[in-house]
């Protein structure tokens, strides 16, 4: 990717010519991308396309076989994992979890839970939470260090469509409130793409990227997901813009995803 | 002090020293599902005993070095995704067998291997107590120094990385602590039953704890109680002390299961 003068300054985190090999298998190659201040970038791709691997490389959990990950100096990352299976033999309250690894004040913990939309659970055990509550607790923890970028790995896995739509609205609200950038992986194309400034379609390498509409009509994207998704995206956009009128629409296209 | 000079008191003090270090470490063994890992490490220490006797080195040192090497080996393997339950089982039993064969090959040494398999707590001297409590202090120091980072790494390696905690480093800390506990426990409960002293107090404490810290404290209490009561019971009924301590801990586990349900 040609770098314009000054681009380095605004890009919070970037990946250049990344290659990841695991057990002799090439998972990712020639991946170059950058996330700028305040934008919402979504990575879509089929199962096994290396989406999670890319995020894990960006947070430093995997080292690249080639290429590099460049983070802005002192970048504060808020990471929300796909799930957090807590061993049931580990007693841990939500409040205690928020103080790992660094202790946080009660007021900071409370405000993070409020912003994640889950004010009442501080004393609950992590193991007793529902999937949706757990995702919000993970989001609250990610918000604690006032992140410049939120990185979310399939954050709505296991939520129903309403639940995940609500979750993404929360993410958008947090972005407009705090101005943090958001980088997320999702398979829920129509929900997530409508909320994104930029979509990156990944399948071992970057197939295509751009505005959601551009990507949805790109031949590379259609080759991966079929043509139906574009309709679903359009439908969602339509629904989204008329959210407050509660019109009844024909949802026949919705099965396409 | 007359009490301190009685071998029963020395045994109880030694047992308490092992228990106080083993219990909080055992919580991590439970949370991270490292039971086989700790067994393999403990069993390997028999080989360390054999080597120490061969080279006329202190048994504590031999047991600790070999336990540490074994723990490092299997944690490297598991880091590469190679250490399945099966691989750990193979390592645990092979290490024990190799150790036993090595002891039998020692020339001119007639040692009672049973003492190292099941412990010989009634024979601990003042020097042993110093080593046990020294080791326990180091383990407790390591655990409290790294406590939050260890918990974070236990929750998930990606989460740890994103929080600036290197999970491999924390694994290394636990590995080191485990080798120290194995080395100091070998004389008290023996290589075969160290795993029990790690696991059972932690498992018994789980039902009464709402936070990880409470679980570690309660586990320590159960461990110390089991050691003291075990020494006393083994004296009264003339039973082997190490196994008796473990029996008391197991009874505590059963009581804790029933108590919570009632």
TrEMBL record, chain A:
Keywords for the protein's UniProt record, in alphabetical order: ATP-binding, Cell membrane, Ion transport, Membrane, Nucleotide-binding, Translocase, Transport, Zinc, Zinc transport
SUPFAM superfamilies registered for this protein in UniProt: P-loop containing nucleoside triphosphate hydrolases
ABC transporter domain location: 13-228
Protein origin, superkingdom: Bacteria
Any one Gene Ontology BP term: response to zinc ion
Classification via SMART domains: AAA (SM00382)
Keyword match Translocase: yes
Entry's Gene Ontology molecular function annotations: ATP binding; ATP hydrolysis activity
Name under which the protein is recorded: Zinc transport system ATP-binding protein
Organism annotation: Jannaschia helgolandensis
From TrEMBL, chain B:
Subcellular location: Cell membrane
Record-annotated membrane-spanning stretches: 12-31, 43-74, 86-106, 113-143, 172-202, 214-235, 241-259
Gene3D superfamilies reported in the protein's UniProt record: ABC transporter involved in vitamin B12 uptake, BtuC (1.10.3470.10)
Residues in the signal sequence: none
Recorded topology in the membrane: Multi-pass membrane protein
Record's GO cellular component terms: ATP-binding cassette (ABC) transporter complex
A GO BP entry: response to zinc ion
Keyword Cell membrane: yes
UniProtKB keywords: Cell membrane, Ion transport, Membrane, Transmembrane, Transmembrane helix, Transport, Zinc, Zinc transport
Family the entry assigns: Belongs to the ABC-3 integral membrane protein family.
Role noted for this protein: Involved in the high-affinity zinc uptake transport system.
Entry protein name: High-affinity zinc uptake system membrane protein ZnuB
Organism for this UniProt entry: Jannaschia helgolandensis
